[in-house]
C-alpha cells in the first residue's frame, strides 16, 4: 500500500529543463567547450557538477574552476526560473490528489538546494512538502538512489511504500533502484522510448494522476 509520494522537481514540477539547456549553451562556450542542444538533452536528470566535470575531462579549460562554472550555470537557471515561474500543467492537481489520498509528500531533486528553494518560492509551494531533499552534497546524484532513500527515511516510510514521480530516465533509474513504485511523465518527444517501459505508469501529464491510479499501485 502506497503511503508516500516523492516528487522530482526539474522537468516534472517546473519546466526548467529548457533553462538548464539554455544556461549550459550560454556558459560552456565562455570557457571554450563546444556542445550542442542534443548534448544538453542527453544529460537531463544528471547533477550539474557531474555534467561540468564530464565536459572538463573531455575539453579541459583554464582560468575558471569547475565550481565556478557550476555557479555560473546555476545562477542563470535561477534567474530564468524566477523570471518565468514555469509550473508544469497539472502540478496542483497531482499534489492535491496525493493529499486527498492521505499520502505524505516529499521532494527529491538533483538540483542544488538554492534552486529548489527559489523554485518553491516562485510557485508558492513552500509549505506543501513534508521533506525537501537535494542530492547536492551526496557522493552520487541520480541515477544513484540515495536521494530517494533519504526522502523515504525523512518521511519515516519504507521505500517499498513510496511512489516516485519523475520525468527523466536518469531519475526513473534512481527511483527503481530505491525499490519505489514509479510514475514517469517524460517530455513528449521521448515518451515512446522503449526504455520507459520499466516505469509502473508512463503518463502524458500530471493532470492524468487519479486516486484510482494511486490506489492500484
TrEMBL record:
NCBIfam families: HAD-SF-IA-v3 (TIGR01509), PRK10826.1 (NF008087)
One of the record's GO molecular function terms: magnesium ion binding
Cofactor(s) required, per the database record: Mg(2+)
Keywords for the protein's UniProt record, in alphabetical order: Carbohydrate metabolism, Hydrolase, Magnesium, Metal-binding
Family designation: Belongs to the HAD-like hydrolase superfamily. CbbY/CbbZ/Gph/YieH family.
Keyword Hydrolase carried by entry: yes
Gene encoding the protein: hxpB
Protein name: Hexitol phosphatase HxpB
InterPro entries assigned to the protein according to its UniProt record, in alphabetical order: Beta-PGM-like, HAD-like_sf, HAD-SF_hydro_IA, HAD_2, HAD_sf, PGP-like_dom2
Amino acid at each position: 500500500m502506497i503511503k508516500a509520494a516523492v516528487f522530482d522537481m526539474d522537468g516534472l514540477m517546473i519546466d526548467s529543463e529548457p533553462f538548464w539547456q539554455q544556461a549550459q549553451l550560454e556558459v560552456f562556450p565562455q570557457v571554450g567547450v563546444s556542445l550542442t542542444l542534443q548534448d544538453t538533452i542527453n544529460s537531463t536528470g544528471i547533477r550539474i557538477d557531474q555534467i561540468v566535470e564530464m565536459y572538463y575531462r573531455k575539453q579541459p579549460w583554464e582560468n575558471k574552476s569547475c565550481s565556478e562554472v557550476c555557479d555560473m550555470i546555476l545562477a542563470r537557471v535561477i534567474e530564468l526560473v524566477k523570471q518565468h515561474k514555469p509550473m508544469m500543467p497539472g502540478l496542483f492537481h497531482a499534489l492535491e490528489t496525493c493529499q486527498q489520498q492521505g499520502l505524505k509528500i516529499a521532494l527529491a531533486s538533483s538540483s542544488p538546494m538554492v534552486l529548489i528553494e527559489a523554485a518553491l518560492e516562485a510557485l508558492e509551494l513552500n509549505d506543501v512538502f513534508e521533506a525537501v531533499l537535494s542530492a547536492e552534497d551526496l557522493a552520487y546524484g541520480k541515477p544513484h538512489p540515495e536521494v530517494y532513500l533519504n526522502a523515504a527515511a525523512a518521511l519515516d516510510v519504507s521505500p517499498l511504500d513510496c511512489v516516485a514521480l519523475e520525468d527523466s530516465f536518469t531519475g526513473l533509474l534512481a527511483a527503481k533502484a530505491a525499490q519505489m513504485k514509479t510514475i514517469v511523465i517524460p517530455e513528449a518527444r521521448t515518451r515512446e522510448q522503449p526504455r520507459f517501459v520499466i516505469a509502473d505508469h508512463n503518463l502524458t501529464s500530471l493532470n492524468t494522476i487519479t486516486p484510482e491510479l494511486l490506489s492500484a499501485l
